[in-house]
Design goal:
- By secondary structure, this protein is an alpha/beta fold.
- The protein is elongated, with a radius of gyration of 20 Å.
- Helix content is about 35%, strand content about 20%.
- The chain has ten helices and eleven strands.
Length: about 250
């Protein structure tokens, strides 16, 4: 079943990477300019139907008028969800870059689709090599995830696994080191550097990492608070870890 995407940036990314999976663009009247106009032009270049719906005859509310042309105006694209990668594909090392290069993520039962979308957006910005998600007790990869990711869902390979512990074992076999995150860890994240390929594991918003996941980690570290707030949103914590350990991020030579 196709997803209804409302963020034109997410739609453009899908059109540029897998146009065959974009089945239709539905624009509201007045939304053919700006980002949605770019979507329409790109879709037409691939022979994808673009339908412009007429505005309703009743008087439009001020808020609706201000939102015309934005992602909240009612324009949508029908896009098939991406097919997950296998773990073998996810952990394939790029010999041209060297086996010690790369950053992966594992999300242990993240339940807020906004968090997952935000993590994919940051991962796409920093060039994360791949993300493992848990099949059970996790938010589905729905339209909200794709819209919040703003294109990040198109550029980052991901696998959806029933058994995260087994997936981590395969990551280790591929030469990847596992770094768990926990506010209760004894060591600070500053203890470690980009000296090896890491997989950073982010835990559930309320319960953190599960026991079996923690037991699989080579190291467990924390982001130490320097103020009154002693914890971070899961996607914010993931963003900090990505920025710190990605060897492909902006400014890295």
């Amino acid at each position: 079943m196709a997803l209804e995407l409302k963020n034109p940036h997410s739609v453009l990314a899908a059109l540029k990477t897998r146009p065959i999976d974009v089945t239709e663009i539905r624009l509201t009247a007045g939304a053919s300019q700006g980002n949605w106009g770019d979507v329409a032009d790109e879709a037409r270049s691939h022979g994808i139907p673009v339908v412009v719906r007429k505005a309703p005859p009743q008087k439009m509310k001020r808020r609706q008028s201000e939102d015309q042309g934005r992602r909240t105006a009612g324009s949508v694209a029908l896009v098939k969800p991406r097919i997950p990668s296998s773990l073998g594909e996810l952990f394939a090392m790029d010999k041209t870059e060297g086996e010690s290069r790369g950053l992966w993520l594992a999300l242990d039962c993240i339940q807020d689709p906004h968090n997952i979308g935000a993590i994919f957006r940051t991962a796409g910005f920093f060039g994360v090599r791949g993300i493992i998600l848990t099949k059970d007790r996790s938010a589905p990869l729905n339209g909200t995830v794709y819209d919040v990711a703003s294109g990040g869902m198109e550029g980052v390979p991901f696998a959806v696994e029933t058994n995260l512990s087994r997936a981590i074992t395969e990551a280790k076999a591929a030469g990847i080191w596992i770094m768990g995150t926990s506010e209760h860890a004894e060591e600070d994240v500053a203890t470690y550097s980009q000296d090896r390929p890491w997989m950073v594991v982010i835990g559930n918003e309320e319960k953190g990492l599960r026991r079996l996941t923690l037991e699989q980690c080579d190291v467990v570290c924390r982001l130490t608070s320097a103020g009154l707030v002693d914890s971070l949103n899961a996607s914010v914590a993931a963003g900090i870890m990505i920025a710190r350990f990605s060897p492909f991020g902006p400014g890295v030579k």
